[in-house]
């Protein structure tokens, strides 16, 4: 694993493909540190940035504000763009179309880092955009949109990506921007370690609660733990050992989640270092009527199980609940969700 040690000058310009919560926070942090950044995103987000500028806050009390006039905003990849680094931050369902647009508009060999949930986005982008140099990445923290042009990081962690010589010059730049990046020779265990944590996203989304409030209810945690246990069984069969991404190793996490509330507050104090603004991006998707990324989370577990001639019924059920939600929107109590997953 390589780590940034000293600040440095940006090796070039950055293009954020997908100016959502992660794209705006990471890209905005780089822009605040003096990196030229172009944000490509949906009209709704871009309008908020154009009217209000970009405001970034975090749970440690950090604040950055970039005036609207300083932001470079576009609904498509600008003609003639030649970024040295692209941060691919679109939702998983938009990976193919985003990669096709990047491959059409940018020079061959352009470096792209996928800062997306799930396991398969990098491979999907590479298939659609074979002229791009696409590397997998991982975002450990939660970012919430708390207002037009305002984004808040509610949890801690360090970005991660696959090690590559082309990415190493960027390490001091990310460190100086306050979004440090670690490089790994094999990112797959890290990606699976993060995916296990992300299995709480559908639980949180269906609960309708802020992240910390949901985690403080044992019933919801039991649902999260059941999804993790099922995924760990599938990973074990596939010979994949997930990396430790959270304060608690993945193999112990489900046991900690099942503790009584009073004991969980003590044992999981570091895990609960989440402020009141934090919520899952999947909850935001449901609130906005968008399709969620459940296919990149529970869907990945189900597909890996099928590859091993196994089943993952609880992750399959959670997949179905999220897919059905737009037709029958509702807030699920912890008891209702436990029953839906077959937990006694």
Automatic annotation (TrEMBL):
GO MF terms, alphabetically ordered: 2-dehydropantoate 2-reductase activity; NADP binding
Organism of provenance: Variovorax paradoxus
Keyword NADP: yes
Summary of the function given for this chain in its UniProt record: Catalyzes the NADPH-dependent reduction of ketopantoate into pantoic acid.
The protein's name in its UniProt record: 2-dehydropantoate 2-reductase
GO annotation terms (biological process): pantothenate biosynthetic process
Lineage: Bacteria, Pseudomonadati, Pseudomonadota, Betaproteobacteria, Burkholderiales
UniProt xrefs under SUPFAM superfamilies: 6-phosphogluconate dehydrogenase C-terminal domain-like, NAD(P)-binding Rossmann-fold domains
Catalytic EC class: oxidoreductase
Catalytic reaction(s) noted: (R)-pantoate + NADP(+) = 2-dehydropantoate + NADPH + H(+)
Family: Belongs to the ketopantoate reductase family.
One of the record's GO cellular component terms: cytoplasm
EC number per UniProt: 1.1.1.169
Annotated ranges, domain Ketopantoate reductase C-terminal: 187-323
Alphabetized PROSITE patterns for the sequence: PROKAR_LIPOPROTEIN (PS51257)
Keyword terms: NADP, Oxidoreductase, Pantothenate biosynthesis
One Pfam family this sequence matches: ApbA_C
All copies of domain Ketopantoate reductase N-terminal, residue ranges: 14-159
Annotated pathway: Cofactor biosynthesis; (R)-pantothenate biosynthesis; (R)-pantoate from 3-methyl-2-oxobutanoate: step 2/2
InterPro entries, alphabetized: 6-PGluconate_DH-like_C_sf (IPR008927), 6PGD_dom2 (IPR013328), ApbA (IPR003710), Ketopantoate_reductase (IPR050838), KPA_reductase (IPR013752), KPR_N (IPR013332), NAD(P)-bd_dom_sf (IPR036291)
